[in-house]
Specification:
Rossmann fold, alpha/beta, seven-stranded parallel sheet, single chain, 7 strands, binds NADP nicotinamide-adenine-dinucleotide phosphate
C-alpha cells in the first residue's frame, strides 16, 4: 500500500525505533498519530501526539475513539527487560508478556474494525530474532516475542478477509539506547556494525509495507530463522552471525 496520504498510528514514539517510524512516515506523506505513555516526551514536529499505554484497556479504547481515520497500525512499543524465566522477577516477566503479547493484541482488537472501515490497510508488528532463538539473561523476552510471532501469524489469517495486510518486522539488534544499556549492564561487547541503525530499519520496514511484504528481515534475523530447522540446542541468539 502507498504510505503517501495514509494515516498511521505508531506506539512508543518517545524514543528508539518508534521515533524513527513516526518521522519516516511523516517524510513519506502520511498523517501520523505518535503515541506514548508520556506524550510530553514526544518530539516529532507535524505529528498528532496521543497518550497511550498499550497495556491499559481504557487507554487503548480512548486512542481508538480519537484515531478513527487510521489505516496503518505500527505496533512497536514493548517492555523488553524481563530477565530470565526461571530466576527472574515475575512482575517483570508479566510486564514483558503484557506489552509484547496482550498489549499488541489489545491494539489489534481495538483497531481492526477501524482498519476495516478505512479499506483494510496494514498492521506491522515489531518482533525480534529472539522469537526464533532465545537469549540467556532475557529468556522471558524471547518467549514473549515467540508469542507475538504466533499472534502475528494468527491475526494475518483472521484479518485477510477484511483486506488488512499483516506484516512482521523481525530485527536482530537495533542500535537504540535500550539495547546499548542492556549490553553494557550484561558486560557484552558487540560491535555496532552488526546492529541495524534505527532510521535505516524504519525505512526498510516501511518499504516492505509499501511492497506488500509479509515478513521483513534483516540479514542476521534471516540467519536466526534458519536455526529453526536445526536441533533445539542450537536456538541461541549468541550463536547467530558468529
Ligand atoms: N533494540 C533492539 O536491539 C531490538 C531488537 C529486536 C527487536 N526490538 C523491538 O523493537 C521495538 C523497539 O525497540 P527499541 O529498542 O526502540 O525500544 P525502546 O527504545 O526501549 O523503546 C520502547 C518504547 O516502547 C514504549 N513502551 C513500553 N511499554 C509500553 C506500554 N505498555 N505502552 C506504551 N508504550 C510502551 C516505551 O515507552 P516508555 O519510554 O514510556 O517506557 C518506549 O517508547 C520493540 O518492540 C523491541 O522489542 C528491539
Amino acid at each position: 500500500m502507498k504510505l503517501d496520504g495514509a494515516t498511521a498510528l505508531v506506539t512508543g514514539t518517545n524514543r528508539g525505533l518508534g521515533h524513527h517510524f513516526a518521522t519516516e512516515l511523516l517524510r513519506r506523506g502520511a498523517k501520523v498519530y505518535a503515541t506514548a505513555r508520556r506524550p510530553e516526551l514526544v518530539e516529532i514536529p507535524g505529528a498528532e501526539v496521543l497518550r497511550l499505554d498499550i497495556t491499559d484497556q481504557a487507554s487503548v479504547e480512548a486512542a481508538a475513539s480519537v484515531a478513527t481515520d487510521v489505516d496503518v497500525l505500527i505496533n512497536n512499543a514493548a517492555f523488553t527487560a524481563g530477565g530470565n524465566l526461571v530466576t527472574g522477577d515475575l512482575d517483570a516477566i508479566r510486564q514483558v508478556m503484557d506489552s509484547n503479547y496482550y498489549g499488541t493484541l489489545a491494539m489489534i482488537r481495538a483497531f481492526a474494525p477501524i482498519l476495516a472501515r478505512n479499506g483494510g490497510g496494514a498492521i506491522l508488528n515489531v518482533l525480534s530474532a529472539v522469537a526464533w532463538t532465545t537469549v540467556d539473561g532475557n529468556t522471558s523476552y524471547a518467549a514473549a516475542k515467540s508469542a507475538a510471532w504466533g499472534l502475528t501469524n494468527g491475526v494475518r489469517v483472521e484479518l485477510a478477509a477484511q483486506g488488512t495486510h499483516v506484516a512482521a518486522l523481525v530485527p536482530f539488534l537495533i542500535a537504540t539506547e535500550t539495547l546499548k544499556e542492556y549490553l553494557g549492564n550484561a558486560g557484552v561487547d558487540i560491535s555496532e556494525e552488526v546492529m541495524d541503525d534505527p532510521a535505516d530499519l524504519a525505512r526498510l520496514a516501511l518499504d516492505g509495507i509499501e511492497a506488500g511484504e509479509v515478513e521483513i528481515l534483516d540479514r542476521l534475523s534471516a540467519e536466526a530463522k534458519a536455526t529453526l530447522t536445526g536441533p533445539p540446542q542450537a536456538l541461541d541468539l549468541s550463536a547467530v552471525g558468529s
